[in-house]
Amino acid sequence: MKFLHSYDLASSQWINTSKSHFFNADVSPSFHSKIKDVFCCSKGNIHFDYLRAPIFVGFPKAMFLQPLADKVRSKLSSWKGKSLSMMGSIELVNSVIYGSLSYSFQVYRWPSSLLKLIDKWVRNFILKSDIDKQDFVIVNWDTIFNPESEGGLQVVNFHLENKAYLLRLAWNFAYNYCYWISLMKARFLKSKYQIVGSFFSSSI
Questions:
Q1: What is the C-alpha R_g of the chain?
Q2: Which residues pair with 53 in a beta bridge?
Q3: Phi (first) and psi of residue 48, to 5 degrees
Q4: Which of 164, 60, 52, 70 is nearest to 117 (CA)?
Q5: Distance CA 136, CA 182 (A)
Q6: Going by C-beta distance under 8 Å and a sequence separation of 6 or more, which residues neighbour residue 75?
Q7: Nearest Cα residue to 31 out of 47, 19, 43
Q8: DSSP-assigned beta bridge partners for residue 54
Q9: What is the mean pLDDT of the chain?
């Protein structure tokens, strides 16, 4: 608390204890009470959202990322019945829907079941302007992801975008030397590229 008070004085950013929570591992009730008394704030529960990213313990499961998928469904449903051309629908998907998911794609590997569900909503929205109406299609949906020069409509492929973001993250981890990378390497690597076992709390 002395350290936090020094930060307050130096930055003029005062901590609002009524809006703050603390998070801790499994500890005894007496130690829990001590923490609560010192920080004068309540204990928070995992999982929660921080800067639009869900924070949770363990591997990314569909239940943790479902709220983001629900927002996608809500946006697509709100556009239902609008006088949109097919290219207008594609532009909305590529800008608004992709934009709302791209930050999360940079942090977590999404479950394929959830991405398939979003793909189905997007496909129905583009072809029928209704996410709940499925139409017979004579063109392979995977072809739609291709550029126009290759016979596609250049729709964003959410599966590949998620993989590409994570590969970029892995590349930065291996070859860059930022402060956060130095911290991660010190914690998770025991040699240049060998990971120290597995960490249950490492959801990222």
A1: 22
A2: 50
A3: -150, 170
A4: 70
A5: 52
A6: 96, 97, 100
A7: 43
A8: 49
A9: 83
pLDDT at 117: 93
d(CA 152, CA 128): 18
Six token digits for residue 171: 């590349």
**170 falls in which pLDDT band (50, 70, 90)?**
confident
What are the structure tokens assigned to 59, written together?
């591997």
pLDDT at 200: 58
- Report which secondary-structure segment, H or E, holds 197: none
Quote the pTM value: 0.73
When pLDDT is averaged across residues 72-100 and rounded to a whole number, the result is 84
Number of helices and strands in the chain (H, E): 9, 4
Quick: pLDDT tens for 34-48: 888 888 888 888 888
CB 137 within 8 A of CB 143: no
Of the CA atoms within 13 Å of residue 99, those in its CB half-sphere come to 7
**Which residues lie below 8 Å from residue 2, measured CB to CB, with a gap of 6+?**
none
Q: Which two tokens stand for residue 48?
A: 């929660």
Distance CA 87, CA 175 (A): 39
